[in-house]
Structures are given as structure tokens and as C-alpha cells.
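User: Could you check the structure of this?
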Amino acid sequence: MSNLPPRILNTPEAGEWISRLTATHGPLMFHQSGGCCDGSAPMCFVAGEFRVGGQDVLLGHVAEGTPVWIGAAQFEYWRHTQVTIDVVPGRGSGMSLEAPEGVRFIVRSRVFSDEESAALEAAGEPPRGDSVTLGEGTASP
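Assistant: Sure, the predicted C-alpha cells are below.
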């Protein structure tokens, strides 16, 4: 269904950083957990460096075809929102690839309209880590 609103987007600035990091490190992936502190920020990893589990939900792909995963519990809170990855000055988590660069990825969100929510609900659940093969969304083998 091509008229579905994307669950995940990136700002142009975040896209530039994703491209820079991809040029340096190769294909990337993001994981958004529901943890505290920096654990609630989107973490950027080399593709496959973070082991995606069966409870992780694939929100979609951003710049450079980069998959964005979210923990199932966090997805339940955010399923009614469109999430946008952005970048701001500052230091994020030491585990995320952008940390040494003096920037950090953050998320912004907006609530889907009733029509968008209905279309997404009709389309069914997004893929989970146990239903995506390696290479499609960098899930574990």
C-alpha cells in the first residue's frame, strides 16, 4: 500500500550525518530502545553490530537505506506517532557512532491523523526482528 505514511523519517541534517557516517563505517542501522538516559535516544551502529531480537519492530528505513528498529514496548507507546530522527550539537551515548563527532541523534515525533492511523492499522503490524532476514533489515540470522 503506497499511500501509507512512513513511520520513520529523518531531517536533512540527520541525513547528512548518516551519509557521513556511512562513508566512514559502511552500512548503518539505528535502534531506539525504551531505556533511560541515552538509552532512550536513537543509537546508530554499524549494520549488524547490534543484535536485533524477535521483539524489535522495524519502523522503516531512513537515509542511505538505513533500517530503524525500536523495542516492542517502546513501539506500543509510539505506534500512533511518526518519528523523525534529527541531529543536534552535543555529546550522546558512547555507544552511538556519532558520539565522537560532537553531535547526537535525537527523535522528534508527531501524532498521526485519524486517517493515517486507520491506514496503518489496516496494513497490519510492521515486521519484527524474527520475521526479517539478514540483509533486509539487519536482523540476526
